[in-house]
Amino acid sequence: MDFCCQDKYGFIEAALDQRIKNRRLRRLRDVTPLNSPEIKASGRTMINFCSNDYLGLARHPRLQERAIEFIRQYGAGATASRLICGNYDFYRKIETKLARLKKTPAALVLATGFQANISAIPALADQNSLIFSDALNHNSLIQACRLARCRVKVYRHNDLTHLSQLLEQPLDNHVSRIFIVTESVFSMDGDVADLAGIVHLAKQYNAFLIVDDAHATGVFGSKGMGLSCGHDIDLVIGTFGKAGGAFGAYFACAENLKHYMVNFCAGLIYSTALPPAVMGAVDGALEIIPEMDEERRLLQKNAQYLRQCLHDQGWETGNSATQIVPVLIGKAQDALDLSGFLEENGILITAIRPPTVPEGASRIRISLSVSHARHHIDRLVELMEKWQRRK
Ligand SMILES: Cc1ncc(COP(=O)(O)O)c(C=O)c1O
């Protein structure tokens, strides 16, 4: 027998040791949600600046009550994939409501954004496809491109000149279809894609356009329905686990594309349908989100205020233009130290390090919610200044 097969667990320890040496070990930590935006961690109450609950809906009574209603009526689980016997009537009702709000002919709900991404792209692309993917796309989109097993060209982040240069290059004869894949609001940088420009390029080169609207859903666009709203996009993917305050994901697209996904998207076909309680919460969120224009305005006003305060202190927030405000630090250890200092002072903000972000681009990622009051933000700003002065 080959020597390397003798210690079948050796690679686990070696990989974890390497992570420890590189100071990149991740650990799960227990937290208890209190009233938003507070959270209990390590036995202490802290202001939470790292959840994606941008509209503070995760603990909204309407979502909780609707979840209980659904669970009472339909039970705890959907019992099977939607194609077997799990297609309860509420999926269709919620999809109809969602499609109307997104202003697309159809919508389809799926288990998670990760699952939606990793199964949508392989369902659409064949081995002769060519995918153009933004350099800062979320890991689920990167995995999706790998699973598609076709050629992928990565264009510089948000650089449409680079994208059009790549699109201009002559195609090999065997290329069957081309795709452009981008996020609308980038999850780690909080900047925004030029969707109008990308739609224009997609039309010019007859490319199939896929936009991940996860961090824009609930926060931007008409009735909070995302930045994709009103743009001619072939497939929009979004989630309910962020501003939606619940869980789950959706496709918004043409009717025949929905039909295609029902037939070819493994993440829908081979997975148990979303549980009734989750869909109840989603149903509640879809009722409330369109009414929250005032909260959306306040959220962006607070983000602008926070960025201005941080800039005045000399911090860099990159091209953030949304409720996601990264403070760019550089070295992983420095980001960890800052995060530790904030935590000692009652503020929870996780340090984001490689491999989630590129080497040298470690940061703390501040994620604002409408549940943050000015005094919460001012406390954060005060501590950031203290840290700046201490260094
Ligand atoms: C841009 C983006 N797409 C997809 C996902 C995955 O969504 P979900 O958490 O529903 O799996 C995330 C989550 O972090 C994300 O940031």
Topology:
Blueprint: H1 10-21, E1 31-33, E2 38-41, E3 44-48, H2 61-74, H3 82-86, H4 89-102, E4 106-110, H5 113-124, E5 130-134, H6 139-148, E6 151-155, H7 160-168, E7 178-183, H8 195-204, E8 208-212, E9 235-239, E10 249-253, H9 255-264, H10 266-269, H11 276-288, H12 293-312, E11 324-330, H13 332-344, E12 347-348, E13 351-352, E14 362-367, H14 374-390
Parallel strand pairs: 3-12, 5-6, 5-7, 7-8, 8-9
Antiparallel strand pairs: 1-2, 2-3, 4-10, 9-10, 11-14, 13-14
CATH class of the largest domain equals Alpha Beta
SSE topology string: HEEEHHHEHEHEHEHEEEHHHHEHEEEH
Give the CATH topology of the largest domain: Aspartate Aminotransferase, domain 2
Helix content: 40-55%
Helix count, per DSSP? Answer: 14
Low-pLDDT runs? none
Side-by-side strand order of the widest sheet: 4-10-9-8-7-5-6
Whole-number tally of structural domains:
2
